[in-house]
Amino acid sequence: MKKEIICTVCPRGCHINVEGEGEKILSMEGYGCKRGVTYATAEFTNPVRILTTLVKIDGVDGELLPVRSANPVPKEKLFDCMEIIRKTKVGVPLKMHDVIIKNICDTGVDIVATKAVK
Amino acid sequence: MNNMKCDVVIIGGGPAGLAAAIAAKQEGAEKVLIVERDHALGGILQQCIHPGFGLTRFGEELTGPEYYSRFVDQANELGVEYMLGAMVLQVNNETNEVICTGSEYGLACIQAGSIVLAMGCRERTRAGIMVPGTRPSGLFTAGSAQRLVNRQNIMVGKKVVILGSGDIGMIMARRMSLEGAKVVMVVELMDYLAGLTRNRVQCLDDFGIPLKLSHTITRIEGDERVTGVWVAPVDENKKPIAEQAELVECDTVLFSVGLLPENELTRKAGIEINPVTNGPAVNQYMQTSSPSVFACGNVVHVNDLVDNVSAESAVAGKYAAMYAMGKLKDAQKNVPCVTGRNVRYLCPQSIDANQKDGKVTLYFRVLQPEQKVTLVARCGDEILAKHKEILVNPGEMNHLTIDTNMISGSDVTVEVVKEA
Ligand SMILES: Cc1cc2nc3c(=O)[nH]c(=O)nc-3n(C[C@H](O)[C@H](O)[C@H](O)COP(=O)(O)OP(=O)(O)OC[C@H]3O[C@@H](n4cnc5c(N)ncnc54)[C@H](O)[C@@H]3O)c2cc1C
Ligand code: SF4
Q1: pTM (predicted TM-score)
Q2: Which atom of ligand 1 lies nearest, measured to the CA of B16?
Q3: Which residues from chain B sit within 8 angstroms of residue A75, using beta carbons?
Q4: Which residues contact B77 (CB under 8 A, 6 or more apart)?
Q5: What is the secondary structure of B101-123 as a DSSP string?
Q6: Could you report the per-residue pLDDT of B178-228, keeping only the tens digit for each?
Q7: Cα–Cα dist B391/B403, whole Å
């Protein structure tokens, strides 16, 4: 498989071409420095993202609770996670970083509140 | 009228106002008061639920609410005072009074030792850039759409075209995609991205959203609701090539075409405004042309990184406190900062060369993207600071730190030198 990855580590934004199979990288070109190799390897084998969105608050209209994944989750699971989060409602009060959903989609990552609500 | 007194009054409770308040307290100002028109603190960060804040200051990637919550906690510990739901109507820099109004306070007059302007910025609107066509519903600035979606739970549309590749527009592209909307494309007039590369990768590429560089919207269609936009490539003079225009169906258009510092109050007070930044001209203490008035954050110049805002605002807060306590001497030797080759603007615009601790950070933006360059700050022929960059572009702010003790001439010039 071939993939063009834009490195986001520094403003130069190198376009790195990676070729490989599964977890194995066969060739890589276009990186401007070593940090790009680390980045492109991770992006190729297991791209992850922090997911942020909002959750409905039980009994409160027009105000939503901002939440995040405590750690990055695999990129391809973002929409599955959204599906679950959309169906969730939370009760208040809540403290900063209270767990809203544990181990979302078996990623091992929790969805937590990014704001305290009284 | 309700009369109040304080040492430092701060207008705006976003990250700039909060950082300034914290620094003013730490410097020893006794009564520090933030006046904020919203019903909560945090400013624009309240609607910025995405990550990407605080990498420099806190060494971790925080969301907007996490970032300002840290500031609010710290401000509370230090005993900063607030007036929420209070809108400032007037700044009187001669009497050092701030007039504000709010349902809880009625009309109030705050007499202060010094004033900090931290009102942030507002978005350029469609009228500001003038796209022809009808005026149906479904047209939003990216930031107002962000506010509706993230703070009021109102989904603005299902099929979206975004004009402008600024960060807010790209972040909304991801947000709307996650919520199930289809973002058809992002249209950018220039031949380079306006915002950060990270946002292009994580907000557009991740969701397969095409980025059309060197394109623009030439016309908007629809009677009651938007039904589509005409998108055309532009020639080297940025003129649309009409024959190549294509109709793109959509029910929503977001405009992410830049921000303007919010300076009605500043103008009315007769404070000098820099024509390039559209914000007050300041020296390294973030002091405006009116010595008792300081300014920081997006009201001075539009920042893309909140960490820069916080750093600059801590400076404003510190010196505003010193001014209020009578510890800041009048600037002795004001040296202008001059923009050299490929530099669009500089902040601060002047330097008091007699500052004791000597270190001043000059923030600046380039005019054009350029590769393999050296950023140089010089005074006459003497180099004050230099720094190599592989790439500079107008979307990412650069900075150089200089030592004021080295300033001997009559100005400081910052320029981008192309490597041979
Ligand atoms: C949509 C968006 C996304 C961003 N994304 C990132 C990012 O990913 N990473 C990053 O580091 N930075 C990001 N930034 C940049 C950074 O967040 C801002 O530069 C920073 O928040 C500006 O802070 P501020 O305090 O100057 O302005 P603001 O946060 O706008 O605060 C100004 C405050 O002043 C108040 N005010 C204005 N006028 C009055 C008045 N007359 N009376 C009383 N109160 C008044 C307003 O209500 C507001 O609360 C983003 C900015 C935006 C807009
Ligand atoms: S590869 Fe190195 S030089 Fe290129 S963008 Fe990544 S960090 Fe920057």
Answers
A1: 0.91
A2: 25
A3: 206
A4: none
A5: EETTTEEEEEEEEEEEE---EEE
A6: 999 999 999 999 998 888 888 999 999 999 999 999 999 999 999 899 999
A7: 25
Instruction: Give A12 to chain B, closest Cα distance, Å.
Output: 5
For position B126, what pLDDT does the model report? 61
The answer to whether the Cα torsion of B235, B302, B162, A68 is positive or negative is positive
Between the alpha carbon of residue A27 and those of residues A34, A41, B176, B371, the distances in Å are 14, 11, 36, 26
Place of tokens 């002091």: B287
Query: Residue B153 is nearest to which of A52, A64, A82, comparing CB atoms?
Result: A64
Task: Please choose, from the candidates B134, B166, B131, B135, the residue with its C-alpha nearest in 3D space to the C-alpha of residue B240.
Answer: B131
Residue with token string 């950023």: B375
Task: Provide the Cα torsion B6, B73, B28, B306; round to 10°.
Answer: -90
**Interatomic CA distance for residues B201 and A4, integer angstroms:** 11
Which two tokens mark B138? 């479904």
* CA A4 centroid distance within chain: 20
Which residues of chain B are within 8 Å of residue A10 when distances are taken between CB atoms? Answer: 390
CB contact under 8 A, B150 and A78: no
- Report cis status (omega within 30 of 0) of the bond before B261: no
Where along chain A do its domains lie? 2-46, 52-113
Can you name the CATH fold of A52-113?
A: CPE0013-like fold (3.10.530)
Closest ligand (CA of B83) = 1
- Ligand 1 centre distance from Cα of residue B120 (Å): 5
**Which one-letter amino acid corresponds to residue A93?**
P
**What CA–CA distance (Å, rounded) separates A7 from B267?**
42
- Separation of alpha carbons B33 and B83, rounded Å: 7
DSSP B203: I
Output Rg (C-alpha) for chain B, integer angstroms: 22
B65 and chain A in contact, CB less than 8 A: yes
Lookup: tokens for B322: 């010193």
Query: Which ligand has an atom closest to residue A39 CA?
Result: 2
Residues of B in contact with A49 (CB under 8 A): 202, 206
Give me ligand 1 centre to Cα A4, in Å: 35
ipTM of the complex: 0.90
pLDDT-derived band at A47 (thresholds 50, 70, 90) equals very high
**Cβ(B299)–Cβ(B119) under 8 Å?**
yes
Q: Which structural domains are found in chain B, ordered by start?
A: 1-123+259-328 (3.50.50.60), 125-257 (3.50.50.60), 330-420 (2.60.40)
Ligand in nearest proximity to the CA of A36 = 2
B101 interfaces chain A, CB cutoff of 8 Å:
no
pLDDT tens track for B85-132: 999 999 999 999 999 999 888 999 999 999 999 999 988 776 556 677
Gap from CA of A42 to ligand 2 centroid (Å): 14
Q: Are strands A52-57 and A64-69 parallel, antiparallel or unpaired?
A: antiparallel
